[in-house]
Design a protein that fits this description.
This protein is of the alpha+beta class. It contains four helices and ten strands, in the order H-H-H-H-E-E-E-E-E-E-E-E-E-E. It has helices at about 1-80, 80-85, 90-105, 110-175, and strands spanning about 180-190, 195, 205-215, 220-230, 245-250, 255, 260-265, 270-275, 285-290, 295-305. The strands form three sheets. The chain has a four-stranded antiparallel beta sheet with strand order 2-1-3-8, with no helix packed on it. Strands 7-4-9-10 form a four-stranded antiparallel beta sheet, with no helix packed on it. It has a two-stranded antiparallel sheet with strand order 5-6. The chain starts with a helix and ends with a strand.
């Protein structure tokens, strides 16, 4: 019985040892697997960390490049904003999209393509601006040249206008009728309408003013009004009335006249006389007689009565 019991005990010990060995081997395998998994996991974690760091560096580089492109564009836009106003929205939309992709850490190549496209757009705009600036400089230079030419033309026009005015003035002066031999005297009427000159105020009945117009081929021919103003010794103008009927305009001034006549001038020497019939006795003293045409003061003379 003891021998059987001892044999059973040995078999039990063998089974237990076998179980222990299997358990130990299993544990070793598990430990080895866990160790391998741990090592692999650490390596993967390290690779992920490195990839994340590399990706962040790439995104930082992309962000820096985007900032550089936008800074260059904004500087150009600030200087030439009026030129880029219609194209600014395109650049802004592209910049916002690239910014969004960088924030999402999207595919690098996708971001790079869009960033290169944005840079090309801005560079094209810069070239267009350079062309516009160059054209603007040329236009400014041409504008300065044109202004100088206009100034010269205006100066020449002013000179020609002055010459024309001087010539017109000379022609006007040359074409005016001229009076000479202006003579005046006091007369009294005798029988048969015979005139007798007198220097006595009490005897004088009328004032006679005679004149001659010179020959002038370039003067306008036709009818002219001739006005005589007789100033009495006290300075008063002898006249029939103070209404417009007895006045005329000379160089913008309205003047009263004593007597007027109308002549037909045909560019030849012409002589005529005007008469002022007294409306009251003449006063002693000196009388000043001034002669006018429609446009000019022809001359003057005096008569002294005692």
């Amino acid at each position: 019985m003891e021998t059987m019991t001892t044999g059973n005990q040995n078999n039990q010990d063998d089974r237990n040892a076998k179980i222990y060995r299997i358990t130990i081997i299993s544990l070793v395998v598990i430990i080895a697997f866990l160790t391998f998994f741990l090592i692999t996991s650490r390596k993967s974690l390290k690779e992920v960390t490195l990839d994340r760091a590399f990706t962040e560096e790439l995104n930082m580089a992309l962000q820096a490049e985007l900032d550089s492109v936008l800074t260059e564009y904004n500087n150009m836009k600030f200087e030439y904003d009026s030129i880029l106003v219609d194209k600014d929205s395109i650049i802004q939309v592209n910049a916002v999209e690239i910014q969004r992709l960088i924030a999402r850490q999207a595919d690098y190549n996708r971001i790079r393509r869009q960033l290169d496209g944005l840079r090309e757009i801005t560079q094209n705009y810069v070239r267009e601006i350079d062309s516009l600036v160059t054209a603007n400089i040329v236009l400014k230079e041409e504008n300065v040249q044109i202004k100088e030419e206009i100034r010269q033309v205006r100066a020449r026009t002013t000179e020609l206008t002055q010459d024309k005015q001087e010539l017109e003035g000379m022609v006007e002066v040359a074409s005016a009728i001229r009076a000479y031999q202006i003579e005046a005297s006091a007369v009294r009427m005798r029988s048969r309408d015979r005139e007798e000159e007198t220097d006595r105020a009490a005897r004088a009945e009328r004032m006679k003013i005679c004149f001659s117009l010179a020959e002038n081929p370039i003067a306008p021919s036709g009818y002219y009004n001739i006005y005589a103003r007789i100033a009495a010794p006290d300075g008063q103008i002898l006249r029939l009335g103070d209404t417009d009927e007895y006045s005329f305009v000379n160089e913008g001034d309205t003047l009263q006249y004593s007597v007027a006549g109308r002549i037909n001038y045909q560019n030849q020497m012409f002589s005529s006389c005007l008469y002022w019939d007294r409306i009251r006795e003449f006063e002693p003293g000196q009388y000043l007689i001034s002669l006018y045409s429609d446009d000019l003061r022809l001359g003057e003379t005096t008569v002294s009565l005692r």
